[in-house]
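Quick one, T. Sequence first:
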Amino acid sequence: MNALDITSESAQGSLMNLINQLQGYRCPVCDSQLGALHQAREMMLGTRDIFPYWECTECGCLSLAAGLESLAKYYPRDYYSLNTRPASKMRELRDSIYLSPLSFLVNWRRRTDLDVIRRVRLRKYETLLDVGCGNGALLADLRALGYRAHGIDPFVSHSVYDQFGLRVERKTLDEVQGVYDVVLFRHSLEHMPIDTLSLARRCVKDSGLCIVCIPVIGWAWQHYKTNWSQLDAPRHLFLHSHKSFEILAKKSGFSIERVVFDSNEFQFWASESYQRNIPLTEAAVPKASHIATMRISAAVLNRRKQGDTAQFYLKPA
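Structure tokens:
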């Protein structure tokens, strides 16, 4: 069934039941009861299961409006963040150049994860905690270069070790002890409960930073609606507008210091595949020439602050 196909009698009945269940639903960010209901399909794996999302009229936040007993089935063993990759001396060399004053030599191949590290000018003696990092691919690269970086993720099957010791601990944020110079959420906060950012505040030094890389409401949501690839139902519990994230940051004890929009071609080709009822697992990656054109369009949206992903740099308030 299409995400908006409610023409059948059974589908109409299910929708009415859901609407009744959502009577009195409040936005988890701004507490408003004004909003609109959307039905979104799971399309990354292609199950096409339908999930209700509530779009807040006041702050613009999209939130998964019905709790699920378990999301485990939507995080298979081969989920991308749980994959590992072998060490590479070539990648280590390129990363060291990327994070050096000679970075212009390798800018032809962007690394948005390393862009974050470069942008905050992380020093090797400073501490970084990567929250929801899977098996810690970025951490492996940073640790190979001598950075004091490690991560946590409650969904890894076991804690991850490398030649430098413990890299990723199997634990939740509320179990973390100590404070860090940088706490990083790299496309993980949208998978977590709404109070996670306030938990992060106690883990950030008063002089430190919290960096949140997330999908954001912009042109892609307005254009594709429930076929927007970054909606990613039901894994993404909350999708923020700039306004809703600013409210959440303030409530969590942070102020927004800087926002960098970094969307890419994925918002176009994946969303258009979903429009054609093709899940991500079956979608064909466009030709290089088409990708180049889409990247130009993404860059235009980013300059207009309408890209569908962004990096928020937060200072303790």
